[in-house]
């Protein structure tokens, strides 16, 4: 019977709930609960006698009663973007430290490591864990709030404010206290959560142009230099012998250093290259039968009143463009990865474009690149097909290591393939530094170049960029390849070297040019050659045609300056010999026809294509002397100012008491005509050096 009654009751529909009764019952229950809570002792140390959850009831009940449900929606809109932003910041600001890379040299492809002290691993790990917790907390808060709002919206017709409070309080085990506070404060706390990890592990400052500049490691740059020439005693060592030098790389490197805000490495300063960088209006021969002419001036020394300067200058015969021989040029271009900088391969390409536009239609151009392996980019092509040549230059890209030996072999093969008899056959090597693949020692490459020059092919070396410059190797290759070396730091320098001085760069008029000066011990006690330290030759090398020396191109100027000490001057540094060597030397010249001479200048040279040298001699006597510095020719005075500047930069002791200001005054007074602004720029370099040396 009982079972049948239960079965009957189960089929009956329950009566509908009375909303008013339900509300009264719920209100009575809540009133009873609150009354009991007010009469109870404080729980868990809460002196106010409130349950922690009742705080939210106290805040949210009036809000919902006043129809401000949009507040929770606004909180959601703030929390969700804040959580996303927090995730982005955690990813972007995570410190990345490569200790091995910090200890090494910063490579050109790496973003500079911030200079601030990196966070310790423990601190970084703690910060990461804290950020991860904050991220999860914010995400949980956003999800819970969204669920609550959807439930409230579905039942708002049946629930009053107390129902809403009760529903929210059910999340006590799920919603964190931080999320509850964020609801009550309009999502102010999530902003603090974003700021907190930023304070512990701040983001690196955005890189500025100055920060992006790679610091040059001076130890990676190699310079061909030697100790400054010593003072020689004429009684024991009356003859000075050296090779001509028409290179200009040193001046360009010095300029690059000074304009970059640093004094140049003294080893990078070669005084003769600084002097010979400038064009001078020295007297020149009238015809090509005599390729150059010597001019000698003796004047007081600006930095030492007790000595004199003997200034020897020659000017090469200038070939008229219409009569210039045909040119067969091979561009040997370094496209290794280190060339991928604005002042390297891009500048190189612009420089060669200038040169191509300067050539004649019948000239020939080939292009070989090297980076690990050599490759022929352009077979010998007439300049009449200029667009084809320029297109090949434009396609060059950097990548790989620098293996230049194989490239040199390929370039000489192409030059031989397109060889022009009675013309100019020249390989033009453009690089930023070492050949670090294959035969890379200076001596190995020197032997390769020496073998190739016997075939009548000349070599020009052009250096680009900073940080990996191997000036020593550039000098070795140029000197042994019957060529010259230049350093291209700007497009203006490329214009000067490859366009304005193209004749001097491309068309040689004499090779193996040597100087030998013999001083008269009757008139001169001591002498010092200024510069040419890396071009010194033995006395017997002067007459030995098998000994290689420098070459002179069309219109080239070469200047050599000696500081000489007259006999009896208080500036004499060496004591007389005890056993009469000085008296013996004087007796040998006494009464001879050359007694009144100060010195005797000799020059040897070979014409291109010839193996036997010719001799030019010039005696120096009182007719070559001027009484004052101001009486010397303008170009002589300017070249002396450049010589003083170079010696000052290389820290030559003789110039210690001579200031940059005095050098500047001497140069400014003798600047003269300056159509290209080279001398004005030089005055600016003197001012920069003066400021940097303070």
From TrEMBL:
PROSITE patterns: VWFA
Highest taxon, organism lineage: Bacteria
Classification via Pfam families: VWA, vWF_A, YfbK_C
All copies of domain VWFA, residue ranges: 328-506
Region of interest: Disordered: 170-211
InterPro entries recorded: CLCR (IPR051266), Uncharacterised_YfbK_N (IPR022156), VWF_A (IPR002035), vWFA_dom_sf (IPR036465), YfbK_C (IPR021908)
Protein name: VWA domain-containing protein
Annotated organism of origin: Rhizobium croatiense
